[in-house]
Amino acid sequence: MRILIVRYKKTRGIPEGGEQGSENNLIVLRQIAGEENVDTYFIHDEAHRRSLLEYVEGVLYMPFGYYFGLTPKRVREIVSMAQGYDVVFVDRSVFGIIAKRLKETGYKGRVVCFFHNVEAVYFKAKYGCSNPMRWLVVPCADRNDRWSCRYADSTIALSTRDDDELFRRYGRHADQLIPVAFVDRYKRDSYTTEFTSEKPLCMFLGAYFPANVEGIEWFVKEVLPHVDIRMQIVGKGMEKLKEADWMRPDIDIRSNVPDLEPLFEAADIMVLPIFKGSGMKVKTCESLMYGKNIIGTPEAWSGYELDYAKAGGCCYTPAEFIASLNDFCTNPRPRFNAYSREVFVEKHSADRMVEKFRSVICV
Predict the structure, then answer these.
(1) Is 224 a member of any domain?
(2) d(CA 212, CA 20)
(3) Residue 47 above 70 pLDDT?
C-alpha cells in the first residue's frame, strides 16, 4: 500500500501545534505502510518566502475554495500524482477541495481527511470581526470542511465536540475519533522527586495567536496580581508581547526556543487560560507527556478524558485560578505529576493510535 500525505507546511524552525500533530500523523502512517511507501506533498515550504504576487494570487483564489497556497494548477498536480497511490491522506480539512477534485476525476483510491479542527470555527477565533481577512478565510474554510465531509471516503476528528459540530454543520459524523497524540519523547527510568516551590514557576506555552494572547492578557490582569508566583511565557513569536502595555516586566518571555524539555522540567505548573478555539490543544498533550501539573480552562482541557483535580485543575473564573494557584503555594506537591504522565501514556501516545488509523486507512 502506498500513501500520499498532503500537508500544510514544511517547517524550517520550531513547529507550531498543528504541525506537530501532522508530524505525528506521518509517523503513524509510516508505521502502517512502511517508510518507503509514504510520500509527502507540502503546500508550503518555509524556506521559500511567498512573493507579493503569490500572496495576491492566494487572495484571489480563496473565494473559489482554494486556501492559501493552493491553486487550480497545484490541485491538478496533486490529482495527477495521486494516481500512483492507494491512499491520499489530506492532513487538514481546509484542503477539502483536493478530496472534491479527486472524486470528480474518478480517482479509484481511498481519500482520508483529517480534521485538526472544525476549521470554520478555528478561523473565526483567529480572525476578529474587524479583520478584513475574516470575510475571505472563514467562508473558504467552511466550504472546504463541507467538501471534506462530502467527498472523503473516511474522516477523522479529534474529539466528540468536533464530531458533534461537524454533524450539526454538515450532516456527517467522523468515521474515527483519534485524539491529539505524540511520539513519546520523555521515557525515563526515573523522574524527579522534587516538590513544587512555595513561589511556583508557572509556564504558559503557545505561539503568538489571538486566542493565546487574549488568554494571557486576561491572566495577567485578572489573576497574576492576586497570587505569589513566577510567570514564564514560551512560544513562537511571543517576543511581541513585550510591546503590550499590559505586560509586566517581571514576566519571563522566551520565543523560538529550540528545546523545550529543560523548561518543562523546571516548571512547577503549566497554566493554560484559553477561552476560544476548536479541536484539542496540543500544548495540553505535550504538558501531559512531560508529567506536569496543569491548571487550564475547559477549552484547554476539551477532548481530554481525565480527572482534572489529579492533573492540576480545571478553572474558568479568576477566583478559581487564584484559589487553585494559592493551594499549590501553601501545599507543595511533586513537580512531576505521575497521573498526568499516566494519562498521556495510556491515551495520547502515538503508539496507541496505530490501530485507529489502520481502521480508516486499510479498508
Answers:
(1) yes
(2) 17
(3) no
Q: What is the number of domains present in the chain?
A: 2
272 and 337 in a single domain? The answer is yes
Q: What is the pLDDT of residue 58?
A: 77
CA-nearest of 239, 120, 188, 235 to 344 is 188
Domain that holds residue 115: 3-181+350-361
8 A C-beta contact, residue 99 and residue 16: no
Whether 297 is covered by a domain: the verdict is yes
Residues 6 or more apart from 5 whose CB is under 8 A from it? 25, 26, 29, 38, 39, 40, 41, 89, 91
Contact between 93 and 114 (Cβ < 8 Å) = yes
For residue 258, count other CB atoms closer than 10 A to its CB.
Answer: 6
DSSP at 314: E
Question: How is residue 189 annotated by DSSP?
Answer: S
Residues 33 and 162 in one domain: yes
Nearest to 270 by CA among 201, 219, 331: 201
The residue behind cell 481502521 is 359
Helices 72-82 and 96-104 pack at an angle, to 10 degrees, of 60
CATH of the domain at 227: 3.40.50.2000
Quote the DSSP letter at residue 349: B
**Model pLDDT for residues 100-149, shown as the tens digit of each residue:** 999 999 999 999 999 999 999 989 888 877 888 888 999 999 999 999 99
Distances 248 to 233, 236, 245, 317, 336 between C-alpha atoms, Å:
12, 19, 8, 21, 28
39 is a domain residue: yes
**Do residue 164 and residue 210 come from a single domain?**
no
- Indicate whether 16 pLDDT > 80: no
Residues 335 and 357 in one domain: no
Strand order in the sheet with 38-45: 38-45, 3-10, 87-90, 110-114, 154-157, 176-177
How many angstroms separate the Cα of 351 from the Cα of each of 24, 259, 285, 289? 10, 23, 14, 13
